[in-house]
Every structure is written in structure tokens, then in C-alpha cells.
Specification:
Elements (H helix, E strand, L loop, with lengths): L2 H19 L4 E6 L4 H4 L2 H6 L2 E8 L1 H10 L5 E9 L2 E3 L10 E3 L3 E2 L5 E2 L4 E2 L5 E3 L6 E2 L12 E4 L5 E2 L12 E4 L7 E2 L13 E5 L3 H5 L10 E5 L2 H4 L1
Parallel strand pairs: 1-2, 2-3, 3-9, 6-10, 10-12, 11-13, 12-14, 13-15, 15-16
Antiparallel strand pairs: 4-5, 7-8
Length: 230
């Protein structure tokens, strides 16, 4: 085999590998709290790009999503209930007895304290419909996250939840009243000039005058809600 042929075969193999690795692999599962890790085979953990869950999950499952699914880009939790958890197998590093509230995206859900990195493959997440809140540093440095929709049920967002999510270009908030229970630096290190805040029709002024929300340069009241439709 000549060197040119060898290089050509190597190049073709590389292209094929890239195409295969870019393929969408969707997995849909119904699970019980703490059951996600065992519900996925090793190849499924390595290959799943789109994960759709139903049933109930806890902080153990969020740790699996964060640490054991290296190519995950899309996560659908719309039909999931998040239950409370207390123990050492959750998302907080080196914690023997950490507490995680129900109906809340856990603290450090997608940010690993051990290696100081966010889950950079994640581009989109659909939250549970009954979500109460978003925990501390939940999406810290999730560089790949491009959009997020915060359900009307959310009443609090804790410290630095979206810190340094520098690819976020769209935040949609479904509540016409700005969430007042905000921790420190929830949206710090985002680019307020390129990230558009979408709020319910008629709520623009309320958000412009609200702490932290008012930092966004582009606030568009273009969200239709059930209240708008009535």
C-alpha cells in the first residue's frame, strides 16, 4: 500500500468516525429514584445524546446524568417528578449527608465540583412541569446551554444557578411576576446584550424594574400564557 492510499483510507475512516459519533441516539426510560445508572448499559451511557425520562428521579440520578453520560445534549424531564433525597450519592461533592429538596433541580446538578467543570455537552433541558426551584450553581459553566425555559411554578433560583452560561441566547420565563427569591449572581457572566429575556405579554415593565432581571438589555414580552389567552 502506498503512502497516499494509506493517508486516504485514514482520512475516510476519520470522517466516518466523526459522522457516527455525531449521530443522534435517543433513549426513553421510566425510572424510580436512584435507578437511572443501572437502567442504562455501558454502551448506552457512552452513546446517548437525547434522554427522555418519566417516573421519579432524585439527586443520585442527576449525578448519573452529569457524570456518566459524556455526549448528552438534550434532556427532557417534562414528565418527571423530582423527589427529595438525603445522603452521599447526590450531586454535592464529598458530602456525607447532603439534603436535596423535592421538585427542585439539585444544587450542582450539572456542575462537578471535583473537576470544576459544567456539563458542556448539554444544550437544552426541558424542566418538570411542577418544578419549584433551581438549586445553587445548578448550571454553573454549562457552556453549551443555548436556551432555557423557566416554568411558571418556579418560585426561587439559588446562587449562581446560571453563572457563566456564556452560550445562553434565550431565557424564557413563564411567570408574569418576576421571581423575587433570587440568590446572588444568578445570571452573572452572561452577556446581557446577546441573551434575550422572553417574558409574558404585558410583563416587560415589571421585569425591567426587577432586581437582576432588569440587567438584561433585551427584554421581550412575547410569551403567550394561559392567562394571556383568557
Amino acid at each position: 500500500m502506498t503512502m497516499k492510499k494509506g493517508l486516504l483510507i485514514f482520512a475516510i475512516f476519520g470522517i466516518m468516525t466523526s459522522v457516527l459519533s455525531a449521530q443522534e441516539v435517543t433513549k426513553t426510560l421510566s425510572i424510580t429514584p436512584g435507578g437511572l445508572y443501572k437502567a442504562l448499559t455501558l454502551p448506552e451511557k457512552k452513546e446517548t445524546t437525547h434522554l427522555i425520562l418519566t417516573g421519579s428521579i432524585n439527586a443520585e440520578d442527576f449525578k448519573t446524568i452529569r457524570d456518566a453520560l459524556p455526549v448528552l445534549t438534550f434532556l427532557d424531564l417534562s414528565r418527571v417528578r423530582i423527589v427529595e433525597y438525603k445522603g452521599k450519592k447526590g450531586t454535592v461533592a464529598n458530602a456525607k449527608n447532603a439534603k436535596y429538596a423535592e421538585n427542585t433541580i439539585p444544587q450542582f446538578a450539572f456542575y462537578n465540583e471535583n473537576n470544576l467543570t459544567g456539563k458542556q455537552t448539554l444544550t437544552q433541558i426541558i424542566f418538570p412541569k411542577n418544578l419549584d426551584g433551581i438549586g445553587e450553581k445548578a448550571f454553573w459553566s454549562c457552556y453549551g446551554l443555548t436556551e432555557t425555559t423557566i416554568p411558571e411554578t418556579v418560585t426561587f433560583i439559588e446562587d449562581a444557578a446560571y453563572y457563566n452560561c456564556k452560550s445562553l441566547t434565550s431565557i424564557t420565563v413563564m411567570n408574569s411576576k418576576p421571581i423575587s427569591k433570587l440568590g446572588k449572581g444568578v445570571f452573572e457572566a452572561l452577556d446581557p446584550s446577546t441573551c434575550v429575556l422572553h417574558v409574558p405579554v404585558g410583563a416587560q415593565e415589571a421585569y425591567v424594574n426587577a432586581k437582576q432581571w432588569g440587567n438584561f438589555i433585551n427584554i421581550s414580552d412575547d410569551v403567550e400564557t394561559k392567562t394571556n389567552e383568557e
